[in-house]
Amino acid sequence: MSSLLIRNGTLVTLNAKQEVVEGGSVYIEGTKIVDAGKFPDNRHHADRVLDAKGGVIMPGLINAHHHLYSTFARGFVPPGRPAVNFKEILEQLWWKLDYALDAEDVYYSALLVLLDCVKQGCTTVIDHHASPMCRDGSLDQIERAFRDAGLNGCLCYEVSDRNVIGGGVEENERFINKCRASGDDQVAALFGLHASMTIGRETLDRCVEIARRTGTGFHVHAAEDAIDEQVTLKEFGMRVMERFRAAGVTGPKTIFVHGIHLDDRELDILKETDSILLHNPESNMNNAVGAARWLDALKRGVLVGLGTDGMASAMIASARTAYLLQRHALHDPRVAFGESCELLLRNNAAICGRLFKDPRGVLQPGALADVIVVDYVPLTPMDAGNFYGHLLFGLNYAPVSATVCRGRVLMENGALSRVDEAALRRTGIERAAKLWKRIK
Ligand SMILES: [Zn+2]
User: Fold this and answer.
1) Which of 134, 138, 197, 246 has the fewest CB atoms within 10 Å, measured from its CB?
2) Which residues sit opposite 11 in a β-bridge?
3) 133 C-alpha to ligand 1 centroid (Å)
4) Could you tell me where in the chain the CATH 2.30.40.10 domains are found?
5) Cα of 119 from ligand 1 centre, angstroms
């Protein structure tokens, strides 16, 4: 079993006592942390030593809602006039882009953005995938990308009736069964659904039957825009969360993404069913769909996590945007400071605790050895009591110098260790250019 010592840094443990340890070290054997704290280098005999050079050593970050397939949209200008609302954004950009992807596009778009995740210190990604023209087997391509990048992933395919009725049901079922059979904890599965507004009654019932049989939760967009509530009310006579609860979609392993237009009763349903709410502030601002009421959900005791919805892979920046957006929207300079940090640092780890076996998001013995070094030397005192201030106003601008996932060094001194990054980027540029030509 290989061993690794990360030494000479300020340890931000994120343990129960929120300990911050100057001159701290982490000792790893295999995929697990064995020791974390202040101890002499010779306490353990490591195969490899990584010098943090006085930077911050902290747990790998978690992105709880990503769309890796959106990578090749970067720089793409959709044809025609600009979209004027959320429905047109879907129709003019995302549903054209996902339709044009082939299997190799799926692999490279995932791998390239996962390398960005490594660079941003993000070691676990919960992804939501769509590629209607290469649907079957697409989750295997993404799994291959996660394994090549060396990161942890939870995958799903977004079922909807928009291209064919029930498109993606079998792909979810196949991949869920594959993950269950393997018993491997690096790549896990959820059952993916697009949104209430694109899924009919029969398809939803089929999905729920499979999820129940396999003990799997769902990963689904909910009330991202008012249109989701409008369509659901018109076609099913219920609001989105009422429909999902009645159908059997809610539960502790189910992630409801966005929830911007949920009313008080629907937020209560999240709490009553112990379901997860997932906030993506940059995406919500980009799509001009509103400011989610995630503070109201937190007050009810709902587990609220943080993602980027494909916008980016920089999670500390996402926490900062969550903080700024709530203050701006509520006109209240007292709110959302600690809560924004906890979405990222506590709640995303708690969400992973419901989807994966190995505990993560903390530097303590027994936790998964997902550890990053941020090249951040504080200008002012930093301790357990004020770390969040350093996180949102300092670490968010500091480069990640090293990323370790499952005990393997993926990046050291800012350079990726396991891949030919330049060659991969060339491939990505070529594939994106061809993809753009296929989109009409
Ligand atoms: Zn999304």
Assistant:
1) 246
2) 21, 57
3) 19
4) 3-60+359-416
5) 22
The answer for residues whose C-beta is within 8 angstroms of residue 415's C-beta and 6 or more apart is none
Tokens standing for 356?
């994966």
| 434 Cα: distance to centroid of ligand 1 (angstroms) | 24
Cα 376 to ligand 1 centre (Å):
31
Q: Ligand 1 centroid vs 220 CA: distance in angstroms?
A: 8
- Other CB atoms within 10 A of residue 2 CB: 12
Q: How far is the CA of 330 from the centre of ligand 1 (A)?
A: 24
Q: Which helix (H) or strand (E) holds 400?
A: strand 400-405
* Per-residue model confidence as pLDDT tens digits over 299-324: 999 999 999 999 999 999 999 999 99
CA of 290 to the centre of ligand 1 (A): 15
Q: Give residue 166 CA to ligand 1 midpoint distance, Å.
A: 19
Superfamily of domain 3-60+359-416 in CATH is Urease, subunit C, domain 1 (2.30.40.10)
Tokens coding 428: 């990505």
CA of 177 to the centre of ligand 1 (A): 24
Strand blocks (E) in 206-310 = 218-222, 255-258, 276-279, 303-306
- For domain 61-355, give the CATH superfamily: Metal-dependent hydrolases (3.20.20.140)
CATH 3.20.20.140 maps onto the chain at 61-355
**β-bridge mates for residue 409, sequence order:** 404
Distance 65 CA to ligand 1 centre (A): 6
Q: Compute, in angstroms, the gap from residue 193 CA to the centroid of ligand 1.
A: 10
Predicted confidence (pLDDT) per residue in 76-95, tens digit = 888 889 998 988 888 888 88
Q: pTM (2 decimals)?
A: 0.97
What does the pLDDT look like over 356-386, one tens digit per residue?
A: 999 999 999 999 999 999 999 999 999 999 9
The rounded Å distance from CA 11 to ligand 1 centre is 33
Distance, CA of 406 to CA of 150 (rounded, Å): 8
